[in-house]
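Before anything else, study the sequence and fold tokens given here and see whether the fold suits the sequence. Record follows:
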Amino acid sequence: MSILTAEGLQSGVRVFSTMGTVLSLTVRGPVREAGWADGPEQIFTAADHRFSLYRSDSELSLIAAGEAALAGSSAELRRMYAMALGWRTATGGDFTPHRPDGVVDLSGVVKSWAMAASGAWLHSEGYPDWCLNAGGDVLCSGTADDGEPWHVGIVDPQARQSLLSSIVASAARPAVATSGSAERGEHIWRRPGVRADFIQVTVRAADIITADVLATAIIAGGTRSLDHASSAWPVDILAVRQDGSLLATPGFARH
């Protein structure tokens, strides 16, 4: 999990629960008296109603229960499924939208997609400086207090009240996502025979979907997947090994 560490913010803040986690949005500068955060809240709420497997009435839950067919699902669900399959191919199967029992689970792309859509909405509404934190995954734009860049703290998975490191969410790489077992227990599926090399992985990337997917893929695929991600995508990676030691790509190490 990542946490925002900017101090002394004097701007609009909205916090709400969605997708089984907490979303926090901070916008710098003047905001409208009402409705300034409605877009992100509506985007996440709609995604939760369509894709959540925690809701028995969601479209994806109906498919999982055999009460509806994937082939006859909404265009939105089929687009999300196609995106997830694309990432499965790109990561050599380390990221997958299928649970071991065959159930389609799109949580690995839905939250980050909703974050990206929320960012696009904020820009369209004329808000250049903001930071969105969804369950520890962070997407930022512009600057924080006094023109300083947004800094994202990386929680120590073995001491949850402490920070392991922090990194700047830069204009070129404004997205930071963390995946691991320390916060939610073992919830990432590995193929038979794949060793659990890391207990936590943080990825900084140009977009939040790439950051989120690769963080999950590296947890699932281990060192081999980390090597592939660092060579195939322009990202920075910090991985925590099982013994607590760290492995950082050069871009992350410089910070």
In short: The longest helix spans residues 107-124. The chain has one domain: 2-253. The first strand starts at residue 2 and ends at 4.
